[in-house]
Amino acid sequence: MGGKSKFQDFYHDFMKMFTWSFMKGLVVNPTQLPFAAFLIIVAELIINVLVVERVPYTEIDWKAYMQECEGFLNGTLDYSQLRGDTGPLVYPAGFVYIYSLFYFLTGQGENIRLAQYIFIGIYLLQLCLVLRIYIKTKKVPPYVLVITILTSYRIHSIYVLRLFNDPIAVLFLYAALNFFIDSKWYLGSIFYSLGVSVKMNILLYAPALFFFYLTNLGLKETIIQLFICGLIQVVLGLPFLLSSPVAYLKGSFDIGRVFNHTWTVNYRFLDIDVFENKCFHLSLLAIHVLLLIVFIPMCVKYFKSYCRLKYVQKQVQPQIDAKNLENKRKSKLKKEMKKKLGKKNEEPENLTKEQEDFINSFETMLQKSSQKGGKKAVRKPAELDQDPHYNINFDILSQLFILPMFIVNFIGVMCARSLHYQFYSWYFHSLPYLLWTNNFSVIIRFLLLALIEMCWNTYPSTYLTSALLHVCHVTVLYGVYKKISAELRMVSKLE
């Protein structure tokens, strides 16, 4: 009987997959994203392999990366002496170690095809981490991610046709975000710092992360986490710091270096003199700080709510688990008792006339009660016998952490002195989340995504695409600000 019941349950669940509501949910319901996420990963594997096999590789920085690492592998520890065809080495020590590994794996950088397949693996791993965040937050419908991720020409180009170091830094960042969601603070800090060790742009998340530490852990533990982040930078950079500390710090963490106007995506409409002017850079820094002053208090309120609800989860979850365990034991005991009774009473007894009359009257009463209740159907006896399973989905709390992190990074991208084409990977996978956090219509959201993609796909950039990119960025940020301001005002009234 037990085997038959399990088969019936399996068959019932299997048939649900072919219902209209289930099929529709796979497209529009964020809670059913896991199935769509699997399809995205499979599709991306196929797409990236086709891109590598059929689209010609374009050399930009890979050769220079190999030349810089070759100098290190030959014993040069003075950062000012490590150079490639595109100029001096300007990335921290983590970059050197990772690309030195690639140097060995790809035969001194000559096996480009193998390097491309390595980057396919990097991209798919990052995509798994990104989709895990979207699955937990349950914010964005599956069809949005399918369309956005699969159709981005620029992102596929950055990862498997250009072999930039930005994707590796972003990979570590998304690993860190996943660890923070799981409250694995030390691992989160380690992977965050590893991301910084590959490229400095990961520091754009630092303002939000600092207040996240402070809100959840307090001052003492925050200092410990910051110490861990700093220690990793010191350990990784130690060989270079011991050899020539000034050259290493100036080369790998040079916040004042001038970008090449030739590659700019966001400031093509400016003259080179203005583009390289320090007053312009300081103005952007001032705007960046001003926007952080506006948004950080909102982020802190989100973090405080996240902290309180996480505390509730710690208190409630053990009770839920204990109750479910108790119900499971009771259910098991009932089944064992039924089996014992079934063995004792193998011969079914004939019902008396009084018993038959009682059953008939009871069925009539059930039918009448179901008619009075309208659409509410009476549960079957088998359903009444089943013990309830209690569950509260706490994963959705991740929204209170992820949104502030994405906002602060987005502000940093908006205020960047220059955006080169590979920088699109810094915030591409967060755009659907930011857009589905505001109250724009679906048409406007997809229009913004399409316009941003168009701006990044236009090479070389034009006055129009540069200006349009700023308009899109401001629109997205304004939409997010308007939405979360309204939500926080509503919460303050309820309090």
From TrEMBL:
Annotated signal sequence range: none
GO MF assignments: dol-P-Man:Man(5)GlcNAc(2)-PP-Dol alpha-1,3-mannosyltransferase activity
Bias kind Basic residues: ranges: 331-342
Ranges for region Disordered: 331-351
Keyword 4Fe-4S: no
Residue intervals passing through the bilayer: 33-52, 89-105, 117-135, 168-186, 192-214, 226-248, 280-300, 400-421, 433-451, 463-481
EC number(s) on file: 2.4.1.258
Name of one Pfam family that matches: ALG3
The protein's name: dolichyl-P-Man:Man5GlcNAc2-PP-dolichol alpha-1,3-mannosyltransferase
